[in-house]
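Sequence, structure tokens quoted for completeness.
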Amino acid sequence: MTPDKAIEEIRAVRRQISEAYGHDVKAFLEHYRALETQYKERLIGRRDAVAILPTEQALEGPSGSA
């Protein structure tokens, strides 16, 4: 199996992140929860999202039949 450079780079970054938080998943998640609190006005939650439904014409397709 040949090593994939992109995969190796991803794994190296993952190791760096893990080391930065002492290999503690809870500490890592707490950091992201703090960021969510800090930037809450920038985040869009499910309740804030607007669904854009396709029109009947889009559902029918180009030929006009479903």
Q: What stands out?
A: Helices lie at 5-20, 25-38, 56-60. The two ends are 47 Å apart (CA to CA). DSSP finds three helices and no strands in the chain. The first helix runs from residue 5 to 20.
